[in-house]
């Protein structure tokens, strides 16, 4: 190409990556905002405690919701089948540890009944899941 002054103009052969970087940053922000919203667990209000009890190698989580529905990990089971399922779990893995997550609004008697079923099934490593307390409330 010739310019008006008669000199030959050379084409610029560099790639402009600034628009690409802008698009990537926008996508990064979108995924950072939406990723935590994709995981939806069970809504329970945990009681607060200052200490943590056990750190097992293999753990199962037993959840008791406010409406007294019982879940072993994410599978709903009734109180009638709970002891049987826990015995099978203990038979498959003798060193199993169990975390009990109970909503703070579940009646105390229900939590004690569930803990009794756990002990009758032979599981001795039992931890209770709580929310950590803030230092202000202590």
Task: Walk me through this protein's architecture.
By secondary structure, the chain is an alpha/beta fold. The chain has a domain at 48-132: Nucleotidyltransferase, domain 5. The chain is 35% helix and 19% strand. It contains three helices and seven strands; from the N terminus they run αββββαβαββ. It has helices spanning 18-38, 79-92, 108-120; strands at 48-49, 59-64, 70-72, 75-77, 97-102, 125-128, 131-132. A five-stranded mixed beta sheet has the order 4-3-2-5-6. A two-stranded parallel sheet has the order 1-7. A hairpin with a 2-residue loop joins strand 3 and strand 4 (75-77). Helix 2 runs parallel beside helix 3. The protein is elongated, with a radius of gyration of 28 Å. It starts with 17 loop residues before the first helix and ends in a 6-residue tail after the last strand. 9% of the residues are buried. The mean pLDDT is 81.
User: Percentage of helical residues?
Assistant: 25-40%
Highest-level CATH class of the domain at 48-132: Alpha Beta
Radius of gyration: 28 Å
CATH architecture of the domain at 48-132: 2-Layer Sandwich
CATH fold-level topology of the domain at 48-132: Nucleotidyltransferase, domain 5
- Would you count the extended β strands for me? 7
* Total number of helices: 3
Poorly predicted ranges: none
């Amino acid at each position: 190409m010739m310019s008006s002054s008669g000199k030959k103009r050379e084409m610029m052969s560099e790639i402009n990556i600034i628009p690409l970087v802008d698009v990537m940053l926008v996508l990064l922000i979108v995924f950072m905002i939406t990723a935590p919203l994709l995981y939806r667990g069970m809504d329970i209000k945990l009681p607060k405690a200052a200490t943590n009890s056990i750190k097992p190698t293999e753990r199962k989580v037993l959840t008791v919701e406010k409406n007294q529905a019982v879940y072993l990990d994410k599978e709903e089971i009734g109180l009638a089948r709970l002891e049987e399922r826990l015995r099978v779990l203990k038979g498959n893995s003798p060193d199993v540890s169990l975390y009990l997550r109970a909503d703070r609004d579940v009646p105390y008697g229900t939590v004690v009944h569930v803990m009794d079923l756990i002990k009758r099934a032979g599981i001795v490593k039992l931890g209770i899941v709580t929310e950590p307390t803030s230092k202000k409330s202590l």
